[in-house]
Amino acid sequence: MTIKHNQQIQHNHFRKDWQRRVRTHFDQPGRKSRRRNARLQKAAAVAPRPVDKLRPIVRCPSIKYNRRVRAGRGFSLAELKEAGIPRKLAPTIGISVDPRRANLSTESLAANVERLKAYRARLILFPRRSGQHKKLDSSKEEIAEHTKEGKVARNTGLVLPITNISRAEAVGEVSKSDMPEGTENAYRTLREARSEARLVGVREKRAKAKAEESQATKK
After folding, report:
1. Residue 206 clears pLDDT 90, i.e. is over it
2. pTM across the whole model
3. Are 93 and 53 in contact (CB under 8 A)?
4. CB count in 10 Å sphere of residue 10
5. If 90 and its partner were Cys, which of 4, 49, 74, 95 is the partner (CB 3.0–4.6 Å)?
6. What are phi and psi of 78, to 5 degrees?
7. DSSP 40-83
């Protein structure tokens, strides 16, 4: 039976022990120091490698946000092929790979290929075992130079950042002198083209009827 009108709620059980079910978050300062110590321990464990992997530049989805760029999941296989990096080698040298991703424009492909080439030019590969240098490993002079001077980067995102253009750079004024010829009355041109496309059948019918009428009068 449903309740109608503004009547009293029957059998209201509001005697639950809610104090036992309240959770507080007074340990945030301790958690902050714990997270910082964990980051330092991770950086020390993976040193001299950076703590993060290189990620591609991708566009945000939807019309509202596609003007912005952000870090993607991984580089596509086409981008790795253009940059000359084997797909099985890429994860071992700090490059994230996403085999499901596809490039929808040549601009994104070129931008990420340049990003890969810039990363590859900066990369210093240490030998896995001391004294056993392989083909792709860096020379002893390069390794000694970068380790002594402290040029090892701890974060890839700081060395190769992903930046968006500012609002002032994105929006600009276009003067009439900069516009190409024939585009002064763009709105009127569009309206005339739309009108011609709509009335093409009516005008053909009218011209055909006029031609038939003129032929009938000649006879």
Report:
1. yes
2. 0.64
3. no
4. 6
5. 95
6. -65, -40
7. HHHHHHHTTS-SS-B--EEEPSSTTTTTSEEE-S-B-HHHHHHH
